[in-house]
Write a structure and sequence with these properties.
The complex is a heterodimer of chains A (388) and B (380).
Chain A: E1 3-4, H1 15-27, H2 37-57, E2 64-67, H3 70-84, E3 91-95, H4 100-111, E4 115-119, H5 129-135, E5 140-144, H6 158-165, E6 172-176, H7 188-191, E7 195-199, E8 210-214, H8 240-276, E9 282-283, E10 294-298, H9 305-313, E11 317-318, H10 334-338, H11 343-347, E12 349-353, H12 363-381
Parallel strand pairs in A: 1-11, 3-4, 3-5, 5-6, 6-7
Antiparallel strand pairs in A: 2-8, 7-8, 9-10, 10-12
Chain B: E1 4-5, H1 16-28, H2 38-58, E2 65-68, H3 71-85, E3 92-96, H4 101-112, E4 116-120, H5 130-136, E5 141-145, H6 159-166, E6 172-176, H7 188-191, E7 195-199, E8 210-214, H8 229-232, H9 240-277, E9 283-285, E10 294-298, H10 304-313, E11 316-317, H11 323-326, H12 333-339, E12 349-353, H13 360-378
Parallel strand pairs in B: 1-11, 3-4, 3-5, 5-6, 6-7
Antiparallel strand pairs in B: 2-8, 7-8, 9-10, 10-12
Classes of the chains: A alpha/beta (388), B alpha/beta (380).
Chain lengths: 388, 380
Amino acid sequence: MMIYLDNSATTKPFPEVVDAFATVASHYFANPSSLHGLGMKAERLLRQAREQIAAMLDVKPSEIVFTSGGTEANNFAIKGVAWQYRRRGRHIITTEIEHPSVAEPCRQLEELGFEVTYLPVGPDGRVSAEQVARALRDDTILVSVMHVNNEVGAVQPIEEIGAVLARHPKTLFHVDRVQGIGKVPLDVKRCGIDLFTVSAHKFHGLRGAGLLYVRDGVRLTPLIAGGGQERQLRSGTENVAAIVAMAKALRLALERYERDIGRLRELKAEWLQALAAIPSLSINTAERGSAPHIINFSLPSGIKPEVFVHELEKSEIYVSTTSACSSKRRAPSKTLLAMGVGEGRAERGIRISLSFDNRREEIKPAVAAIQQAIKTLSEVTGSHGDEV
Amino acid sequence: MERIYLDHAATSPIHPDVAAGMIQSMTEQFGNPSSIHYFGRQSRRALDEARSAIARSLGAKETEIVFTSGGTEADNFALIGTAMANRERGRHLITTAIEHHAVLRACEHLQKQGFDVTYLPVDEHGRVSVEDVKAALRDDTILVSIMFANNEVGTIQPIREIGALLRDHPAYFHTDAVQAYGLIPIDVNEYGIDLLSLSSHKINGPKGSGALYVRGTVRITPLLFGGEQERKRRAGTENVPGIIGLARAVEIAERTREEKRKQYAAWREAMLTIFRSSGLDFIVNGSEDGLPHIFNVAFPGTNVESLLVNLDLAGIAASSGSACTAGSIDPSHVLVAMCGNESERIRSSVRFSFGLGNTTEQIERAAEETVKIVKRLTKR
């Protein structure tokens, strides 16, 4: 029995999503910018997808800018604001635990003369609205805080931060929702969000499709210029088939949420309980204030996390060392370090990430395999992984 | 009514084998190539194979291929990335007046950042002169960006000569090969090209997929920062199905290249013959030896909007120029550069572009319908 527990890296596309892609790619292939009838058909499909997605996200169709994915959307939000509003100010606030697609553009901006404040997080992996309030300055043009952390699942207090920012109308608020969509609801209006990022392949859509929500009235300098598609904000022939597939994936994912979120929460609680019963493991995901699909724990010292991943693979169980984007380089998890667990524990983090397709029956065999892997690897390395 | 699609330069239908390969990849290789487990490794392998196919097609090394979300991103990356990385060395760029907007808008962006851009003119056939490039070169020129072949009129630029000229100059040479790639064999070393943009959906691959060739010695700053994909030059989870689709489209393009070139040349000739024998007043825009699939024609006395609407009503999908500027029918910047602001040609030209699925019967019918429409529109 294959048990895939790496849904935060990428999810398997829903079959309906693949079908939608195949239909549109094969039968509505024309360029939506073309004036002829075939172009207009493609344009109509694009418009419908935009309207459907906007309605599901509770925003206006004109506020959606399609991108090639979450990384582009995050880069666009950060750099688009920075270039557009640099005369207003050059200070940006973010956190120490953002995804690299937020953190790295911030580093680039620092080299180009911007100042970035990286807020630390507590042991639960969360920042507080008070920290944001204290860091705000007159020249702060952007606050970028992720909704759900991709490594440990900590849910950030977006609504409280939004309340703080309501008193600073000249500071824009960007939220990376890549891990939260379809798992943790967020009221965009109530939170006062100006920009947010979505990636299709994290909710059973396709890779190569994502979007940035840009609230009406917010102006951005484009990252990719050219033919002027997406209301001049993002040029390039629209990937219509993948966008239609994203609309379908989002609808199905939100239906699954409605139907199964209670079950997913229970599943996560059971996982946490089962893992907590293994004394040699240190659980890094807080029980409260965390998303229903991500669990992070650290292996006992002496066990290399990538060796552990391969050991589990022998039983067809797939987990990850840390976020996939940085998993080739062995470095301590940035999020775990920021949470203050210490370097050793931060180097031995393992992430389990669930989808609505995971089942209770998987927990027992998976946990047994985890225990066995720890035992096997402790014997090999001669370390003192606790016997269970 | 059978619809005749003659707008392959705007975008082309996906080849059924390409679609099949992508769907298989979506369902079987859904892992993230950066994941170290089986699903990740399987995706990684597919990605590596696709990368070597693309590299091989250009005579490049695998490490010199950076996958992007398409031609527009590749162009933006090439221009902005090299400009930002080499701005200490110089702030001058050379390009032409007839580039795709992906290049022109990136240049405008750079001008706002303090870069100096020279836009070279073209002759009435849409060709840039090597002498002009030479004369424009300065000590502080860091990049020359000249498209391989124009997307509206098909004119092929003297890339080999410009490449040779630049061998003795530190400026990098970028070429937007989006329209030429697939139909013209390109070896980057032979041509002296340092950066080359290509797009999948112009060669019967999927949209949302493309690549930038970056010679190993080129210094370039990423456009997209984040994870360490594409050797830290382009962050973002790799669009494996899109990349596999691109690789498969390239294989098919290479296999069918000669046959297609012959076929398209014959279709162009067939349209010309019908136009000539009808006694129609027309001027071919571009040059005789241009891209074989692009046929751009001016019909004096007509207006391009009514021409296109009437063609569409007759079931024929053609275009006024690049699809990206087509939303608004502003006169094509390419035709303006070739013929001047006053020329009637800038308001009466139609681009027919051939490709997968077209038949000789379709081409002949399209030509005959065009004759009828033009005659109707020019009747006084």
